[in-house]
Sequence to fold (620 residues):
Amino acid sequence: MSTQASLSRRPPGDRVFDLFVTVAMLFVTVVTLYPFLNVLAISFNDSTDSVRGGLTVYPREFTLENYKVIFAYETLVTGFRNSVLRTVIGTVIGIASASMLAFALSRRDFQGRRFISFYLALTMYVSGGLIPIYILIRDLGLLNTFAVYILPGVVTAFNVFVIRSFMDGLPEALQESAKLDGANDFVIFWRIILPLCKPALATIALFLAVGQWNSWFDTYLYNASKEALTTLQYELMKVLQSTDRGMSDYRGQNMNEVMNQVSPESVKMAITMVVTVPILAVYPFLQKYFVKGMTLGAVKS
Amino acid sequence: MKSDTAPYGAPTSAARAGRFWRNAARSKYLYAMSLPFVAWVFVFNYLPLWGWTMAFQNFRPGRGLFDQEWAGLTHFRMLLQDDMFYLVLRNTLAMSLMGLIAGFTVPIVFAVLLNEVRNIVFKRFVQTVSYLPHFVSWVVVAGLVTKMLSTQNGIVNDVLLWTGLIHEPVQFMAKGEWFWGIVTAADVWKETGWNTIIYLAAIAGIGPELYEAARVDGASRVRQIWHITLPGIRTTIIILLIMSIGHLISIGFEKQFLLGNNLVREYSQVLDLYALNYGLGMGRFSFGTAINMFNSLVSVILLLVANGLFKRFTNESIM
Fold:
């Protein structure tokens, strides 16, 4: 307990309130974690045993069979590879573009500053909509290409503004002295500003990586007919939707065979875990950065 | 150097132009670092706006952009005569409004309660756990929701049966009348933790001396929340409320696409899905664009209203 002195003088209702808060927070924790633990348990449980039901948060008959089966399935491995690729490439390009734009916009002496800020901010509120964007992507010849995962998302206004607010907080004297030494703006950006922006860059890298990793709709809309370009989320989406809509509309017989080796349920749960675990492994370590990034972004925009 | 390109202009404007070009030359690296991306944004964000012209044409994908046949307001007229449109609009507005109310109130309650947790380790743990669902894709969340609400071993049905509130499992995912609630609940489950970040930061900014004084006066914790914490984050609450009104109708379609099925179609179709089905599914590009355009126009109007409200409250503009 905190301070003993104040404890003795606390109004009687406070103990009840403390209990209420603790119970409420435990409830939130359980409600958030249970679905994940349940899925984890089923994914590691023997599939014939799982059908009996009654599994909660630990496996009854432990097995790695479900994971072996899904990793033997070629399309999923292709999807995994594409998801990793788009996450890495998309994040690197996204960081590069957002930080360069942010740097230009953070400079008071840059004439284009106001116009470009407004021009970017507008894209956060107005969008052409699905159909015009689809037509554009088609006319640019990006249908059935890997590039469609990367190119449309090169610049995201929100990310630019988060990094800019961070740069606004850096002392201007840093740049002044470098300029006197004859450094040009790009050198100042690369050598002085960028290394100081690590917290903001970590936040944006997380947002970009999560966004790329979690995308499925672009695969569905632009690349559905090309199996070599599939992504993990898209495959998971198809597997999850397959029971509702019957297996008939599902591409190829392959997945049916996979599903029949172990039960469909077990396959779904194992893929769900493969998709979720990388995120689980990363985000807690970046927490202090993204909390700061979000707070900054909200204050400025 | 380029200042003498305008020798005949009025001296002041010539001087201004001169300053402009000298300045521009000095910022050449800044231009090089920003203009390519400005062009990029033009292609991927602004060109689609021009695609709105399709709504006024009988767009044929085979033809070039300039030999399309103009159709005036035909597609908008058809839209307003389609019974399906009103159903879809109802669904969009209903889910937006439910999402706005729940997505606005629950994070405030959660932030305030989390702030009252005295044990720092427990507080951090709850906080970290609460951020988790934000990072998980809607595909996964839809899978989890379907699993939890399932009639076979779904935890929700199990708990309800155990408490005796129901006597046989409820088919949540197959009943249209549940759909709006399920979408809203899934959204709350996914985003509440994330949306508390800003409130927690605002609460952290309230001076501890206020609580100290209240404690000396013998105020209970509930009274401290009511008289100090909530008034302390009032501005943040107002700003976030207004901003979410601006985004009211742009609820997206991912949740509805992934959680919906044929049994609940009448409740799950939203404007974007309707545009997708007609526009791409049936190849009626112009009609689909008209739907998209309607959606965007309503968003912009809401945004302007929200911005007006915002100005009145804070004398600042969010745009």
About this structure: Strands of chain B lie at 57-58, 69-70.
